[in-house]
Amino acid sequence: MRIVSICPSNTELLDALGLFDQVVGVDDYSDWPAEKVKDLPKLGPDLNINMERLQELQPDLVIASLSVPGMEKNVDRLQELNIPYLVLNPKTIDDIYGDIRTLGAACGVPERAQQLVAELQSKVERIQEKARSIKQAAPKLYWEWWPRPIFTPANANWLTPISDLAGGINLFGDKPGDSYTAEHEEVIERAPDYMFAVWCGVHADKVKTTMITEREGYTAIPAVQNGRVYVLEEGLYCRPSQRLFQGLEELVDLLDPERS
């Protein structure tokens, strides 16, 4: 097969399924695995895919994902051009398992897909055992996807169950939908125990914790007072692929009360 991925998380899933030798093109934001994507044709930003260039690659299947808001425009265009495509739309951990099976079946590797799901499920079980002591304290976790305006994950996003599996609580997990636009006053009032900057599309080395801690009124927040404001690699938390489970493992280590 000739496969094109127009979303970073899908590119990562294709690698996990051992299908990367069939990938002939990706979107500009697909940056992992770095050594494999660097020489592939780039088709533009995920929300502005060059469809003419995509057609030239003669794909048998294009993998899209509605986890990227606005991806619907690309899907409509693929349909108009009669290009075979598959759309994933994960919101929960179980959805990611389901997407792996769906992708594996579509690409002819259902056994590998089932094996990958089993491996990830086993990892989650080990992590949950490790997170027992964290769950007793149930720390409140504030995730920041974007600073101006503040975008943070709401109930129908994988970071809510990820927070729970790690023993914590997503600060805005009670809000409906995928994401929530919060006000600074709400963040202060909810008093998170940890704050995580995972700005979508921004590398961690471009973000400083002071961009959060120095905001007006934030010195009243327990996370700021206790030095628990972190900049994390957004690729481990903002993409619904197997790397999210690596992020979960690192999150548990970060929340471990025995951590020095």
From TrEMBL:
Family: Belongs to the bacterial solute-binding protein 8 family.
Top-level division of the source organism's lineage: Bacteria
Protein name as annotated: Cobalamin-binding protein
Organism (species): Tumebacillus algifaecis
Stored Pfam families: Peripla_BP_2
Boundaries of every Fe/B12 periplasmic-binding domain copy: 2-259
